[in-house]
Amino acid sequence: MIVFVTLLAGTLAARLAGLAGVEFLDSWPSAIAIGLAAMFTMTGIAHFVNPRRRDLIAIVPPGLPRPALLVTITGVLELVGAAGLVYAPTRTVAAVCLFVLMLAMFPANVYAARMPNPPKSMTTRLGLRTAEQGVFLAAALAVGLGGIQ
Length: 149
Fold this sequence. Notes:
Layout: H1 2-19, H2 28-46, H3 52-58, H4 67-86, H5 91-114, H6 126-146
Helix pairs in contact: 1-2, 2-4, 2-6, 3-4, 4-5, 5-6
Keywords: Membrane, Transmembrane, Transmembrane helix
Membrane topology: Multi-pass membrane protein
Pfam families: DoxX_2 (PF13564)
């Protein structure tokens, strides 16, 4: 839930700044980009800090090789994507890439939901996690489409 709150709070704060005259944040897609950047910065950092890193490694589906390396790679991609969202010329590409990354990582959430004893930080019910994922995907889509002129 904290990930969702970060997206929402970051977006609303950025939009308020836009309404107050910050030109960079003069549209909803720009504000959502900032909210997503905050969210992906937080989740990207979590890929490197225990206990969250350990939990993320534990939910990598068993058919995938080198879970620790995959968690490291996805963490780096999230952080690079967050930076790309903040920089206007790369915002659209970053949003599209993060959209694809979220789709690619979602099976780990399904796997975690079906584990008999998932890590404590991964106990969100699949229905709620799927709904949150839909919001995250819609936000990335709004940013990606918002940059197309």
